[in-house]
Structure prediction request, 422 residues.
Amino acid sequence: QLVDRYLPAISSCLLDESPLVSHQTLTSVTRLLQEDYIKWKGPLFYRYLMCIVSDNPESQQFAEFCLVHLLLARHQILFFTHFVESVFYLNAFVDHATYNKFSKAAGDTSRFSLRGSKNRSKRMIVYKFLLKHMTDEQRFSITEKLCQEVLSDVIDKTLPLGGEGSAVLADALHILACPEIKLSVMRTHAADEMEDEMEQAHAAAANVKSKVVSQVVRKNVIENIMPNVIDLKHMLEQQRSPLLRDLMHFLRELMKDYRNEVQDILSADRQLAREIDFDLRKLEAEEKKEAAAAKEAAANIGRDLTPHARLMSPLLASPLTVATPGRAATPLAGLSAPRLRHTPALSLRKHVLHSRAVTPAANTSPAQAPVSTGGLRQTPSTRRVQSVALGSPMLMPPPAGGVPTPNNQLSTPQTSRHPQPA
Prediction:
């Protein structure tokens, strides 16, 4: 078709920096898909999925609405058919024999991928979104496909570990352990809440269906899942891989839902049963220790800082600068304020202010009031300072051609704003 040749360029605008361009591209592509002018060819579906974890909340909501209410309604198996390949595409794994064999333009690999551990939470958002809108039959098939096409391939070494291969295995184990992949008939018992006859009839049918599905699922656990889990455990233990922790998470979820079936398998190998029990206890102890450490760290945040320091810490983190015309900006930390010169007049003023702060007793005359010397030794100079503070007459130097004038007869300017009472 004429539109197909321009489809890579059009779909590249789904993650445009401008929210307006991204929203308009979503609208146009959705309308073309609804009218069957374009098909889900190439990486179009996976680029569409990237909008779910966009930085723009409006684009996220609009992409979810279009996928669920407009596109999934027309193609009921849309999410199911693309799920396993999305694990390889989002991790940018290109060494698989079947999946993620698209021709990419320059820069598309880094732009339309969520590789790396820092993007694992975003990938899990995409996986859980797809699983949430699947039927029980589709979830069951997804479980079987992940065990066969990921776990089995790792055991057979057709899917090499290391780099993106380890990320694919880690994502598969997280998906198998998440609650969204569990069948709804295994989690709910609708028959207990039905009241009238019509609802009881539906409940009976749901009970029969749940029993059949549970038998099939339990058989799948015994024949396909547990053998792969055991072989993968031995392999990861030999390599001392950190993925063993993810595998134990999945095995713990299996023990919760299918304890009897797992115990029947492990009953044939007592040593393996003891090893798994020990590993599960160790995992639980590590999780409790990590939770306690995180709780203690959260409680200690800000304990050593005063309220004023907490407010000032963002300001102190970045140095302030002073811009001078014609010069480069200078940090304030590098500037030094001039210090006052220590002169006899300055020392005399400090002693006077300190002596005035000491008030005499109510029934003690100024001459008899004790005066604090501030820890200084009584010298003639300090006695003169005390006499000034207590109002004793002190002769000032005579003016030119005059006689000495007592200090208490000198007039000083009025500094108070209010007139003194008579």
